Each structure stands twice: as structure tokens, then as C-alpha cells.
Amino acid sequence: MDTIGRTRWAIAEGYIPGWSNGPEPELESHETCCILNAGDKPAQVRIHIYYEDRDPVGPYTLSVPAKRTRHLRFNELKDPESIPKETPFASVIESDVPIVVQHTRLDSRQAENALMSTIAFAQD
Fold first, then answer.
1. Which of 20, 56, 101, 107 has its CA 20 to 30 A from that of 87?
2. In CATH, what number does 6-123 get?
3. What is the pLDDT of residue 3?
4. Cβ distance 113 to 22 under 8 Å?
5. How wide is the angle at C-alpha 58 spanned by C-alphas 51 and 39, nearest 5°?
6. How many CB atoms lie within 10 A of CB 26?
7. Domain extents for the chain?
8. In this prediction, what percent of the chain has a pLDDT beyond 70?
9. Do residues 16 and 109 make contact, with C-beta atoms less than 8 angstroms apart?
10. Where is 95: in which H helix or E strand?
């Protein structure tokens, strides 16, 4: 298979609601970065988080094995610091090998849940 993906992605929109409706962790409101590494080498991924009114934070680091996918909830990022709830943010995702990134949000603040998904912006 030919290489698929890019090494730099951006998600311009992010927001983790302050509360949820339903059992956790399944229905906890969250933002997710879905990463596909279809290549033959593990991907070393770095994420930087940007805010409206303060300096960026990062890198958050993770690995995605070759020919695997990883669904990372932004809510679970802790190092170098947790992403605050009820705070708009954006993210830049960089990898040492090509990957594909998709953004998903589950908003369960009301009983009728909303799920949104979009492909991130790729730049190389």
C-alpha cells in the first residue's frame, strides 16, 4: 500500500463541556483525536494545544503502532497539564510518519446526545 496521510494536522475547534448526562466513561462529553497509522513504522505523535487567552501547551506525546489506529480523548491528556473544561481550544498534531487525523465530539449535556465528526486540516 502507498503511504497515506500527512505529518502535520490542525483541528481549529475544540471544547470539552463541563458536565455530562449518562454513564461515564461511555457517555462522558469529550473531544477525540482519531489517528490512523496505515504505514509500516510506529508513529511518534506530538500534540500542542492553543487557547484564546494564554500561551500554547505541549507537547503531549503518544505512539501509534504501525498499521493501527488510536482514539485519544483530549479529556484524558494530563502531561504536561490537563485541558480545562468549558474552555475553547485548538490543536496541532505532528507525527514523524504520515498519519490521518479525524476529530470527533460527543456532547452529552442533554439526554439527546449529539455526535459530531470532521476530518482535520492536513498540512505538509
1. 101
2. 2.60.290.11
3. 80
4. yes
5. 115
6. 9
7. 6-123
8. 72
9. no
10. strand 89-107
